[in-house]
Amino acid sequence: MLAYTLFNLLVSGLQVLAARVQVTWDVGYLNISRDGISTWQAIGANGKLPIPPIYVTQGDVLELTAINNLDKPLSVHAHGLFQRNSSYYDGAGMVTECGIPPKSQFTYVIETRDQSGTYWVHAHYGTEAIDGLRAALVIRDLDPKLLDEYDEDVLLTLEDWGQGPLESMVDMLKTTPLVNLIPNHPTVLINGINANLSQPIRFTPGRRYRLRVVSMSFTYWFKVRLPGHTMQVIEADGIYSQPSAVDGLDMCPGQ
User: Fold this and answer.
1) Which residues, 6 or more positions from 133, have their beta carbon under 8 angstroms from its beta carbon?
2) Residue 173: how many CB atoms within 10 A of its CB?
3) Which of 19, 119, 129, 251 could form a disulfide linkage to 80, CB 3.0–4.6 angstroms apart?
4) Could you tell me which of 212, 66, 36, 63 has the C-alpha nearest to residue 128?
5) Cα(76)–Cα(126) distance, rounded to whole angstroms?
6) DSSP line for the chain
7) pLDDT tens-digit profile of 9-67?
8) How much is the pTM?
């Protein structure tokens, strides 16, 4: 009881010290080859792809300002985040908002006091997310006991990447038999780089690592394995669980 009370006092004190984390995405087009295979007009933020991950601490308020330099409306959604009494910040285009008009901007205010874990932020209007506008969002934990269970965080983002803007491929996808789509299938990106070209993750024996794995995919399911090793699942979709030993993870789109 005493430990529980002390933890609540700690959380209350840290929430008083919570920060307002301000992030600006100047959203626009850029010609880029992310897979080393094809170059096309994608959608990025601040002239970059991949977009850097966003890090906050539980209790912080994230203020994400999206500046729309596209030629169509834009909206941005924090995937998996509660929007209690603030659905107007949810960013679901033509559901909770009409979208940010071109040459305009909007600031999404996202509370994190009730959640921690690994999430992602993405466009939620048309095909803008699958064309590039997506990034990981990590909400660090307040509970010191959780922080004592591992030595280092390692973020692993998984993406699918096509051979052109999705809008330009819609007619082909509708009329081409599935078997003939194989040569045009998306490339897998790990941390924003073609999986076949990405650098290995190096682990130091004796240290405990928390792998934060987020699937920012729209088409693929991923199977994540570390050959010769087992992993313990401690959190899924922002919900902590009793540690469960597994030899791999099946990650569906958006998970």
Assistant:
1) 25, 27, 43, 44, 45, 51, 76, 122, 123
2) 12
3) 119
4) 66
5) 11
6) -HHHHHHHHHHHHHHHT--EEEEEEEEEEEEE-SSSS--EEEEEETTBSSPPPEEEETT-EEEEEEEE-SSS-B-EEEET---TT-GGGS--BTTTB--BPTTEEEEEEEE-TT--EEEEEEE-STTTTTTT-EEEEEEE---HHHHTT-SEEEEEEEEEE-SS-HHHHHHHHHHS-GGGGGGGPPEEEETTEETTTPPPPP--TT--EEEEEEE--SS--EEE--TT--EEEEEETTEEEEEEEES-EEE-TT-
7) 444 444 556 899 999 999 999 999 999 888 999 999 999 999 999 999 999 999 999 99
8) 0.87
Place of tokens 């994400």: 64
Do the Cβ atoms of 73 and 102 come closer than 8 Å? yes
User: Tokens at residue 127, please?
Assistant: 């095909």
User: Which amino acid is it at 229?
Assistant: H
**Which tens digit of pLDDT belongs to each residue from 150-180?**
899 999 999 999 888 877 777 776 776 655 5
